[in-house]
Amino acid sequence: MDILLVNDDGIYSPSLIALYKSLKEEFPEANITIVAPTNQQSGIGRAISLFEPLRMTKVKLTKDIVGYAVSGTPTDCVILGIYQILKKVPDLVISGINIGENLGTEIMTSGTLGAAFEAAHHGSKAIASSLQITSDHLKFRELEIPINFEIPAKITTKIAKKYLDYDMPCDVLNVNIPEKANLETPIEITRLAKKMYSTHVEERIDPRGRSYYWIDGYPIYEDEEDTDVYVLRKKGHISITPLTLDTTIKNLEEFKKKYGKILCDIKK
After folding, report:
1. Is residue 176 a contact partner of residue 39, using CB atoms and an 8 Å limit?
2. Three-state DSSP class for 259?
3. Are 177 and 130 in contact (CB under 8 A)?
4. Who has the most CB within 10 Å: 184, 237, 248, 258?
């Protein structure tokens, strides 16, 4: 069995080591390969480096664990992992464990989900795993505050085993784990909420009197009860959202009947 690990937080994210060790305990015979960006790549979505060369360096992460650092995006890492390192499509790709949750339709901007979707595109089963962070987000991202990934890694591994054991009709499992989760924390199957954050733009003035802008937002907690936002943030449960690559509207035939002539007849 081949398992590929990717993380948009970078090759030195401690979650990669925790996840590697947990997977090795569950799948001792598996060939587990770590490929991750050299630098932080959050919010980059499914971007691919088409117009610049990529460098890949083998690095020692612990005494017994090595990984490949790629000078590109999480999606680049998946492609190089499959076509340059493994030379085949792995049985499973796990993207994460990300520092910070990935919820709602805003997952389209997530580097964590971007890598998972890319893996699914090439025929691998894929999991995007993220850990909720409720404290100072920037300090966690800069790794000034240590995070214990042991429990999130075990939860992700248990979900991965069930995902591998069954032929589930989805391309990606988006897993979001509460910050204080344990192995007894309830798990719920959810759908994507509309938004994870409210959108906010802050204008500031630089020393030369010119405007510059920061795009940020505030966490949303209220949503419908079957959504990932509600289950994770309001109930404190683990959320699993099954996702597909095909984003075509669900009621396509109904859409054709209602809007087909309007959209397709441009002579009117």
Report:
1. no
2. helix
3. yes
4. 237
Query: How far is it, in rounded angstroms, from Cα 81 to Cα 5?
Result: 9
- Find out whether 129 and 23 touch, Cβ atoms under 8 Å: no
Give 151-187 pLDDT, tens digit per residue.
Answer: 999 999 999 999 999 999 999 999 999 999 999 999 9
231, with CB counted inside 10 A (0-12, 13-18, 19+), is buried
**Where does 119-219 show beta strands of DSSP type E?**
125-131, 172-177, 187-189, 197-205, 211-219
- Cα 174 from Cα 242, distance rounded (Å): 6
Show the tokens assigned to 227. Answer: 């959504």
Residue with tokens 């464990």: 97
- CA gyration radius, the chain: 20
Query: Phi and psi (nearest 5°) for 155?
Result: -65, -45
Q: Strands 2-6 and 92-99, how do they pair?
A: parallel
Neighbours of 160 (CB within 10 A): 24
First and final C-alpha spacing in the chain: 57
What confidence tens digit (pLDDT) does each residue in 3-60 have? 999 999 999 999 999 999 999 999 999 999 999 999 888 888 999 999 999 999 999 9
